[in-house]
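Handout, section B. The chain below has 125 residues.
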Amino acid sequence: MNKQCSMSEVESVIEEMELSEISEDVAELEEGYQLVLSGWYVRIPKLHLRLHEGVVGYGDEEMKEYMPDFCVTVIYPEEPAETEYLYYEQDGMFTTMVNWLHGQMSMEEIEHLECEILIPQESSI
């Protein structure tokens, strides 16, 4: 399932969707840290990017598992085969994009970027 919206609307649209049943992906950040990424993502065609929500976890040696630490928005190249992230920040999607673009686009231009929320086909949503 795909849903179109603008960047200014994307976070509120996502809040209204039921996405908890979608499988997550796990990526390594650096030794001792793990990133659990949403299985769904937001595609920004004009910038050839995709955004994922995620949770950074740290390795708890005593419990021998990763413990959640903080939520992030992660920016990747648009091509799903690309597994190297470009940037991540402990903030929402809009603020993360503003900070990552660092003046290359005005806030108004970013607000009006067309986005597509992509949900994997195997999901029943």
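Note. The first strand starts at residue 2 and ends at 6. Compare this with the example in section A.
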